[in-house]
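quick one: S-adenosylmethionine bound model?
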Amino acid sequence: MVPEPLIDHHGRRIDYLRLSVTDRCDLRCRYCRPAGDASYAERSDWLSFAEIRRVVSLFAAMGVGRVRLTGGEPLLRAGIVDLVADLAAMPGVSDLSLSTNATQLARYAARLKAAGLNRVNVSLDSLRRECVSELCGRDSLDATLAGLMAAKAAGLAPIKLNMVALRGVNDGEIESMAAFCFEHGFILRLIEAMPMGEAGRAAAYLPLDTVRARLARRFKLQPCAAELGGGPARYWQTADGRGQVGFITPLSLHFCATCNRVRLTVDGTLYLCLGQEHKLELRPLLRGGGDEALCSAIRRAVARKPWGHDFAAAPSRVLRFMSHTGG
Ligand code: SAM
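yep, here:
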């Protein structure tokens, strides 16, 4: 019998799970985690790999075929390659991906590819050493670039490069980041800073509409006819189709109507919306309940997925920061 897909009260089909495997990170990006924050999940509360495998298999059975591993920094979780191998081989998981700052990717890329990972998203906000140091708390530029090149050499594809666009911080180098991506065959994705937690609210938000106009003029970009990815980015491309830029605009042009995802933290909290506090504590159910109870709890939770965030109208609503939820 084919199980019912997960559909919320607004008729949106949920087919995408973002799974945080750790809330630790080796960078301290200013817009992500508040300075000095050390509020990590207890080690004993982390979902084990067996619990992660179980929960992913239940989601997959309910039609959630797309899974992204994230964090914190997912490559800091010991045994990550084994987890990737298990999830990549899992029936019902059709698209497994990973978001990383790539500082550890040079030593992991080939093993991740061999384990069954196809694609990777790398976060990099600047190609200027001083800017990276200032924004991320240390100079991680060389490590990230080495990780990116290792991913390319390993055949991970596509490689998407995520850049949070910040007014007065990196807005002057978006063109050079686009040129860098076009040269190496990476897909650039520009992201508007979201007011998540005090760190996100302090970020120098830059709406992307003028940036898009600027890039369209400079690189003669046209909107992509075909949808790329299944996520919220709206893509534009060069005339030969070889250079692509995605614009992720949660504030200036939100995409809640087509939201298809939920997020699971490292300690087993299922968040139904990035910008609201609606959640389900799955860990107690995973540790004390059967599969049927888990599935029906997930179904009930998904049904009450909120319509969308209130980032523009109520920017102080979300207290948790991105690294806690799993970006
Ligand atoms: N460490 C991994 C990485 O760097 O991709 C995964 C976790 S990180 C939280 C995921 C993404 O969230 C990164 O691309 C980061 O730039 C983005 N992010 C963090 N805080 C954000 C915010 N306030 N607004 C928009 N994007 C944010």
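The mean pLDDT is 94.
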